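User: I'm curious whether this sequence folds into something compact or stays loose and floppy. Could you predict its structure so I can see for myself?
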Amino acid sequence: MNDTIAGISTTLGVGAISIVRVSGNDSIKIVNSIFKGKNLENALSHTINYGHIVDKDEVIDEVLVSIMKAPRTFTREDIVEINCHGGIATTNKVLELLLLNGARLAEAGEFTKRAFLNGRIDLIEAESIMDVINAKTDKARKLSINQLEGRVSTIIRNFRQELLELLASIEVNIDYPEYEDIAIMTVDNISSEMKNIREKLEKIVNESENGKIIRDGIKTVIVGRPNVGKSSILNKLLDYDKAIVTDIAGTTRDIVEGEINLDGILLKLVDTAGIRETDDIVEKIGVNRSLEELENADLIIVVINNNEELNDYDQELLNKVKDKNSIIVINKCDLDRKIDINLIENNNIVEINTVDFDKIDILKDKIKELFNLDMIEQSDYTYLSNIRQISLAKECLSILSEVESAIDREDPVDLIEIDIKRIWTKLGEIIGDTYSDELIDQLFSQFCLGK
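Assistant: Here's the prediction. I'll summarize afterward.
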């Protein structure tokens, strides 16, 4: 944290502008050593300065240099941003000169990591920066902006404050039982507070499932026997021919993927190889991959032919998905019916064909119904949104159950207090008030260079 780092903050390639960012105590001094123009060390903060980057007597590029002095910067360190002409050679040369003159190449996400470690942002806000960059739908953008602005963090901080006040009351009762003017904190009082906390925490967790859907989308795996129309359904959903479609069974031998925006939610579609016994080595690998995809799916679409009776492969798939989010698609409903729908134990059944274009909307409507997409509040995006955040909130609920059990057993208040402190600490991990170095290193390593 005492050295000065440099990195390219824009996508490396041909473009109008590239930005090379420098942060640290010596950032202005280092840039000034390769800058021809006004003396940057005398420049006012938050100003843009025209000049040239030079290597001794050679002009490398005509640039605009932004000077931002601590603490009013992203990292709360001195930051300099060199706006040079876009291009691989030019941008790399500017970075090379910075490194030769005392800067160190920034690690992935190191600028954001410094912003976090210097108290400029918390962990939720840090994660939201990459979410803003990666957002593929407008809802995902709104969700990440809400987190970046600290609205979600405020909810967690207020929640921790309530717990802190409860802990303080318990501590006073334990340490100073002789004082008569303090409110007596009984097990009944704690039980009432825990009920209130549970209601709030469960609301956070339940609503945050919406946040995860908005952020990550819905991984949707399409499975079925060969030649039941899986690839045709994929193509209709995508509205273009992504997968090869023929009357030959086993045409799809590997995973075919695509994405659509379904009412602001990203539907990540995966077409799989037909499930059947086969001696073809390549097709067998495809079948195994299809079965593996089922384990990681948020939604499974099982496709079955309307004009054929259910066979053993159909029944096997139906058994595999009966405890998962699944939709049973009876395809080719324009043909004579031979299937007995009464044999299918699943409430989410749709009948479509891929000949009539509007039939695919029936499937889309069923997906929206299954995930309550119409119920996701469009004006309130204050959700936890990733696995790390949601799992920590669920851990808090689990500890809270232990507290409630301890209350029922009439355990001593000082023992109950220990578990309440654990909840407070876990909530701190969500926003980064408490953290491990390993977590921080792993989290920021996922960021792009220069961010």
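Summary: The chain is about 45% helix and 20% strand. Residues 178-183, 243-254 have pLDDT under 50 and may be disordered.
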